[in-house]
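dumping this here before i forget
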Amino acid sequence: MLVPVVVFSLLAGKTYASVIIDLGTADPFAVLGEAGVTNAGPSMIYGSLAGSTGTPAVTGFPPGQVFLPGVLYTTGVANSGPGTPFGDAAAAYTYGQGLSATSEGTASLGAGGGGIPSLAPGVYSFSSPTVLLNGLLQLDAGGSNTAEWVFQIPYALTTDSASSVVVTNAGDNGPFGGAITWLVGSDATIGTTTTFLGTIISMAGDQVLTGATVGCGRVISLNASVTLDTNVIDAQAADCMVTGATGGTGGTIGPPSVPAAGVPEPGTFALLLPGLLAMVFLRFRKPRVSSLL
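structure:
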């Protein structure tokens, strides 16, 4: 029997989306890219973000923002061994791939391409090298707020544009204590405007394309980089809520609710400071220049 593990962040007393697989020190992170993180556009990250100490480059913040209590690590975090974010994420990947699973063969996911439209809680494996999500995939929680899904994908995960993952038939309104974990043997590509749920742990690179959102989870690449473009990535448990439950059951969890903008974390302020100082300089310089004309 699978036992849920709820990991508590030490940052400002916040909790993050619980996972069936213990992520350890990787739990507070919304984005981890071993070879760095690249962003374009005004992405909003709710959770910490980092590359590794070996390849720490994080670009595109701003215009992207990491909101408190998340931390933007510009010098990276440790990438191997127990008790380090990447080491713990790698251990979680290995553990999850070793779980007994129901085989789905070469099936695709989602109703849009004639794939699997709905799945009950459980562990699912696939024999197809690439698993495609096309259209809507409903994860039926069976009236529970602690339902859990694990997907073992041997190679790549790809979603078509505007695809979506939702949890249906959850329990009472309120925080969702279950989890969705995607274990990807190669790379993951989340298509444009896709609304995705769960934690992706991949062995190669991750691309979250323009306008896509990832809620109730994280984007983690163990050996390569993560590329973002005008996305919302939300790992905070407080934003993973069951809504619309009637009589205690029947609620749903959809895309991230996009919390209020809040306050960018300190690393983001440091990146913003040169631009703010330039604006102040130009504001006070302009009248002096004008007076000389």
